[in-house]
Amino acid sequence: MLAPERHELILRSLRRHGRLRVAELAAELGVSAITVRRDLAELDAAGMLRRVHGGAVGTGPAGASAAGSQLTVGLVVPSSTFYYTDVIRGAEAMADRYGARLVLGVSGYDVQVEQERIDKILSLGVAGLLLATALGDNRAAETGRRLDAIDVPVVLMERAFGFPDVGNEYDHVRTDHAYGAMLALRHLVSLGHRRIGINLNASVTAYWLRKGIAEAATALGADLFVSPVALPARGEDPDTIAQLDAFLAECESHGANAVLVHSDEHAARLVERAMERGLRVPDDLSVIAYNDETAALAVVPLTAVCPPKLQLGQTACELLLRRLKAGPGRRSATQHLSLLPELRVRESCGAALGQVSVDRI
Fold first, then answer.
1. CATH topology assigned to domain 3-66
2. How far apart are CA 109 and CA 133, in angstroms?
3. CATH architecture of 70-175+310-334
4. Closest by CA position to 189, among listed 220, 227, 225, 212
5. Residues of the chain with pLDDT under 50
């Protein structure tokens, strides 16, 4: 390996970890400690790092921060509201626990904006990146090349990209949404419902919910039907009411008196429309929502599947920080972690007034 190549790798490692040790660099680069010391001396002379006993640290204000115990990591998410509010809070809490700093970028579910946010955060010299990309697992190939171009450790959140869509394997932490769908449908079947209608919004989560629904149809022996019309991701779409009315008509035609609706906002509006049509909830129609962000505030408090959003942010951030703290040359096995959601039972599917219980398979 030529000296310029080693220098580039040394500077990249310094950006990731804030501090370098000669022995670890020698093992990582596959060269002698003497060679590493010579490289560090050349980079010090060029003002690109500062040699210290046993290794090197950064220079200037950014380097001074990195040279201490604090690490800076990037966090890029599609939104800072709704689902991702708790994810961000969880990551922030874990960063504080480790004495690290988070830099947040929000893409607005726009792939081009997302790349701009990633590039901006990487230009700040962050040591690693937490990423919930705007694209879902069914569009992994579109994200693979961008991921493989990032030169700091990446932990994916709520995504599970892997071979052959990406060249490298990445740590990821995600909610097992297929399990969440099974959890909701199992509960409805336990209440005696055999015909169940399902309506999903046009979101990344729907990909995994459909997998859980397919498994539930076989495992539970229930008659499930998924509405062919995907609800809009946000309930303010003017077509939402017409679509909810059509879904209620589908349920009546199918003989279904229980439904699973993604998300809370749509489920709450469905309850209102059902009541306007003379249906009683839960007597005539049992409803389970998915997400549990505002489900408890519905006209009839909604039973809801609650993904572990706070814990997801905490777990992903801790996974990244532990990897960064370990330093170069000490890479542990890549981890693919799935967190289980829980079911919070309220009045919309038959719980006693004021009762809230938690159910798990």
1. Arc Repressor Mutant, subunit A (1.10.10)
2. 8
3. 3-Layer(aba) Sandwich (3.40)
4. 220
5. 61-69, 351-356
Q: Could you report the per-residue pLDDT of 113-127, keeping only the tens digit for each?
A: 999 999 999 988 889
- Per-residue pLDDT, 65: 39
Degrees to nearest 5, angle at CA 157 with 320 and 25: 25
Answer whether the bond into residue 164 is a cis peptide, omega within 30°: yes
Strand ordering across the sheet containing 195-199: 223-226, 195-199, 258-261, 286-290, 303-306, 342-345, 357-359
What pLDDT digit, counting tens, does each position of 303-334 carry?
999 999 999 999 999 999 998 887 665 667 88
| From-to residues of CATH 3.40.50.2300 in the chain | 70-175+310-334, 177-306+342-359
Q: Which residue shows structure tokens 């309850």?
A: 271
Read off the pTM: 0.76
The CATH code that applies to domain 177-306+342-359 is 3.40.50.2300
Contact 50, 44 (CB under 8 A): yes
- pLDDT at position 325 is 81
